[in-house]
């Protein structure tokens, strides 16, 4: 057995090679597999996030010629030199070799990860570098599968010494009986990794160059090969829409559990849908059937009531949102403000203590502190070509069914009568009215009903 020299690799620079060249045919979607989203974020971005959280100073994404969108996405995130192309695809070992030139000047450890494993986070991968620091030449991340099926098997000696990895299609019955499986994630010194890959052949059932073969080669060379293990859910890959939904469910459950541990109240957590960047402070209550899109932050004491949808919005302390509210990007809801049922807010700053409790659209502008927006109020912000702003001053009162035709300003403490269409600024403290004066026709309704009833009786 090869002995490990402790602390041999401590503090070495880190790089990541993210494999993203798969065809993804089982997804049956025009969207490339690794650009499908979990938690509202592309799976490729989850892989990049993990690499960056690990401190990888170089990240290379291996893409296929069939999916230029994947390369564009990676370069937009990481820069123009972030991708290399594997063409044609000839296995995982061949894919990692595609990154050889891109890392030619890198001196440090390389971790190989996968863009279709959205639950693979930095804490799950980090033990590989611990093994490297302890002297392992090749460190592999494994898991124990409930149903090993088509997974590659880890053949181990005592002490998690890894002898070799055998793909299921090439495995004998005794190996297939093993439950320790290969996640595909491994770490090694950059120069040693590519030296081992140079010795990999394709004499196997698929005729491909397997990355996993480097383990057996390394062991034969008396190098230290070790395995560490992660929960099965953390390393699960996505190859179909059903597996994407399963990964989403695991991700959502984990994020909800984390928020509740941090002090967020969720009476029915399984009904709440979070985004990758949702920020919820301790002391917030999130009622059932709430959906968070990207870019939402909620301060302590706020209540998000049932059936609300929030995206790109910030909510202040003690604010009350919903039920059935919709907050769109640019909505800034101040402390103690109320946004009620069937109210939509887009790109509006709502001041502290202001209220819009029912059936309103507030788009582009601002609502001052303690202003009241009556039911049926509309910020008429669009003329078919351009957007314009509406600004409602502090303490203003907007009567029900008012239409505020932007650009317009309602001054502090001003009021509008119900049913008013406001087309010009209203000075502070003034009342704006624009409805037709009411007229009465005495007895008209009674005469009308009598006439109609007589006609109905004649037909009977």
From TrEMBL:
Residues 1-241 are annotated as: Pyrophosphorylase. It is an enzyme of class 2 (transferase). One of its GO terms (biological process) is regulation of cell shape. It comes from the Bacteria. It is found in: Cytoplasm. GO terms for molecular function: glucosamine-1-phosphate N-acetyltransferase activity; magnesium ion binding; UDP-N-acetylglucosamine diphosphorylase activity. Binds 1 Mg(2+) ion per subunit. Residues 242-262 are annotated as: Linker. Its EC number is 2.7.7.23, 2.3.1.157. Acetyl-CoA binds at residues 375, 381-382, 400, 418, 435. Signal peptide: none annotated. The keyword Iron does not apply. Mg(2+) binds at residues 116, 239. It catalyses: alpha-D-glucosamine 1-phosphate + acetyl-CoA = N-acetyl-alpha-D-glucosamine 1-phosphate + CoA + H(+); N-acetyl-alpha-D-glucosamine 1-phosphate + UTP + H(+) = UDP-N-acetyl-alpha-D-glucosamine + diphosphate. NCBIfam families: glmU (TIGR01173), PRK14353.1 (NF010933). Catalyzes the last two sequential reactions in the de novo biosynthetic pathway for UDP-N-acetylglucosamine (UDP-GlcNAc). The C-terminal domain catalyzes the transfer of acetyl group from acetyl coenzyme A to glucosamine-1-phosphate (GlcN-1-P) to produce N-acetylglucosamine-1-phosphate (GlcNAc-1-P), which is converted into UDP-GlcNAc by the transfer of uridine 5-monophosphate (from uridine 5-triphosphate), a reaction catalyzed by the N-terminal domain. This is Bifunctional protein GlmU. It comes from Caulobacter zeae. The gene is glmU.
């Amino acid at each position: 057995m090869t002995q490990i020299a402790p602390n041999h690799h401590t503090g070495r620079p880190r790089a990541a090679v993210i494999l993203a060249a798969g065809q993804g045919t089982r997804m049956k979607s025009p969207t490339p597999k690794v650009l499908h989203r979990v938690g509202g974020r592309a799976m490729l971005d989850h892989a990049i996030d993990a690499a960056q959280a690990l401190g990888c100073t170089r990240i290379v994404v291996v893409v296929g010629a069939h999916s230029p969108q994947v390369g564009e996405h990676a370069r937009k995130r990481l820069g123009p030199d972030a991708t290399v192309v594997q063409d044609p695809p000839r296995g995982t070992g061949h894919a990692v070799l595609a990154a050889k030139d891109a890392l030619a000047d890198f001196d440090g450890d390389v971790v190989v990860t996968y863009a279709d494993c959205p639950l693979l986070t930095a804490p799950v991968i980090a033990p590989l570098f611990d093994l490297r620091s302890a002297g392992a030449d090749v460190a592999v991340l494994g898991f124990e599968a409930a149903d090993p099926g088509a997974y590659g098997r880890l053949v181990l000696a005592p002490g998690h010494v890894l002898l070799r990895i055998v793909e299921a299609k090439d495995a004998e019955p005794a190996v297939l009986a093993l439950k320790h499986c290969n996640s595909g994630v491994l770490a090694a010194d950059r120069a040693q990794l590519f030296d081992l890959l140079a010795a990999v052949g394709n004499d196997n059932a698929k005729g491909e160059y397997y990355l996993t073969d480097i383990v057996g080669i390394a062991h034969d060379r008396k190098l230290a090969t070790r395995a560490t293990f992660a929960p099965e859910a953390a390393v699960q890959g996505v190859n179909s829409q059903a597996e994407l939904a399963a990964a989403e469910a695991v991700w959502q459950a984990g994020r909800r559990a984390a928020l509740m541990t941090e002090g967020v109240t969720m009476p029915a957590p399984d009904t709440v849908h979070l985004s990758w960047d949702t920020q919820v402070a301790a002391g917030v209550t999130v009622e059932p059937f709430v959906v968070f899109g990207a870019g939402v932050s909620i301060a302590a004491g706020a209540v998000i009531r049932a059936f609300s949808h929030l995206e790109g919005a910030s909510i202040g302390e003690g604010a009350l949102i919903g039920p059935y509210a919709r907050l769109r990007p640019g909505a800034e809801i101040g402390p103690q403000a109320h946004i009620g049922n069937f109210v939509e807010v887009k790109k509006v700053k709502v001041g502290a203590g202001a209220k819009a409790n029912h059936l309103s659209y507030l788009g582009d502008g601002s609502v001052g502190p303690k202003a009241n927006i009556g039911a049926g109020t509309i910020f008429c912000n669009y003329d078919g070509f351009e957007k314009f702003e509406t600004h409602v001053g502090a303490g203003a009162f907007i009567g029900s069914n008012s239409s505020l035709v932007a650009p317009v300003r309602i001054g502090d403490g001003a009021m509008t009568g119900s049913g008013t269409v406001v087309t010009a600024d209203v000075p502070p403290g003034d009342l704006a009215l624009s409805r037709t004066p009411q007229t009465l026709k005495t007895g008209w309704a009674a005469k009308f009903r009598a006439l109609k009833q007589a006609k109905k009786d004649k037909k009977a």
